[in-house]
Design brief:
The chain has 315 residues and is mostly helical. It folds into two domains: 171 residues, no CATH class; 74 residues, no CATH class. Helices cover 79% and strands 1% of the residues. A two-stranded antiparallel ribbon has the order 1-2. Strand 1 and strand 2 form a beta hairpin. Helix 1 runs antiparallel to helix 2 and helix 2 crosses helix 4.
Length: 315
């Protein structure tokens, strides 16, 4: 065993002190044959030491005096455990708990192996070892069995913990992806809503502008119609009779206003209409025009103007 440790140190020392050679990197399995050769040589020496200490300690034989000896079990259990623990520590550790236990238990069993093999050389040939050494050697396989059971349990627990952590990480990644997709969908919906709101606002503004333009055009048309009617009435009076197609009330109004100018007739109609609206603000434009002897459009236009003047005075 001391030789194995020495060989391993000698094998690693040049690699640590010398610079790496040029060329492709050297793979670790290229040195496994060196480890195999050393392990076989050490096992031969260790096997002889454990057989000797086992036979001196009175390990029984299976099948009587001429049966199979059991002293070889010391070499198998002890050396196999610390080799497996060393592998579990350095090469195939599934988690921190099993790695730590494999590290310390491998060192402890390695030290116990050194003590047991050294004690075999301290016992004089042909004599029986002390009871302490017999108890120590007999208890060593049971101790190794407990250690290997604990190590296997910890390795399995570390594997399960690693799998659970991987599943949790996968679930978290999936949930994060779903949340990102939901956030992107909400962002797209919000953008579509803002676009629709802007388009709707533009449509409303356009409708308002069209409505305002239509109302302005209507008011202008009504004013033009009132002026045209007044001009037609003036021309009718100049010609000496009512214009063809005019209602009877227009003719009566023209006859009543004989000898007056068109401006005086319009002024008197406006004054009379203002008096009627002051007394009856809810009167319709048609009734107002009939009371003043004017056209219906004139009554509606005058009523609207009167309402605007009243609103301006109130404001």
């Amino acid at each position: 065993m001391d030789g194995m440790g020495k060989h391993e140190m000698d094998d690693r020392a040049p690699t640590a002190s010398l610079p790496a050679p040029a060329g492709p990197p050297v793979k670790h399995r290229d040195h496994l044959w060196v480890l195999a050769v050393i392990a076989v040589c050490v096992l031969i020496e260790v096997w002889a030491s454990w057989i000797e200490i086992g036979s001196m300690s009175g390990f029984p034989r299976i099948g009587g005096a001429h049966g199979v000896s059991t002293d070889w079990t010391l070499a198998v259990t002890t050396e196999a455990y610390w080799a497996y623990a060393l592998y579990a520590w350095l090469a195939a550790s599934p988690g921190p708990r099993s790695r730590s236990f494999a590290k310390w238990s491998a060192g402890a069993v390695f030290c116990l192996s050194l003590v047991g093999q050294g004690a075999a050389h301290l016992v004089p040939p042909g004599s029986r070892p002390s009871p302490v050494l017999v108890v120590f050697v007999s208890s060593l396989p049971v101790l190794v069995l407990a250690l290997i059971a604990i190590l296997i349990h910890l390795r399995q627990a570390d594997r399960e913990a690693a799998e659970a952590l991987a599943r949790a990480a996968e679930r978290s990644a999936r949930e994060a992806a779903e949340l990102r997709a939901e956030a992107d969908e909400r962002t797209a919906l919000r953008a579509a809503l803002e676009t629709a709101r802007e388009a709707h606002g533009a449509d409303v503004r356009a409708l308002r502008e069209e409505l305002g333009a239509a109302l302005a055009a209507r008011e202008t048309a009504e004013q033009d119609a009132a002026r045209a009617e007044a001009k037609a009435a003036s021309l009718a009076r100049k010609l000496g009779g009512p214009a063809s197609g005019k209602p009877a009330r227009a003719a009566a109004h023209a006859g009543a206003g004989a000898g007056r100018t068109q401006l005086e007739i319009a002024r008197d109609a406006r004054l009379k209409a203002d008096e009627i609206l002051a007394a009856q603000p809810d009167i319709s434009g048609a009734a107002l025009a009939e009371a003043c002897g004017m056209k219906e459009r004139w009554g509606q236009a005058h009523k609207k103007q009167w309402a605007e003047r009243a609103l301006g005075q109130t404001g």
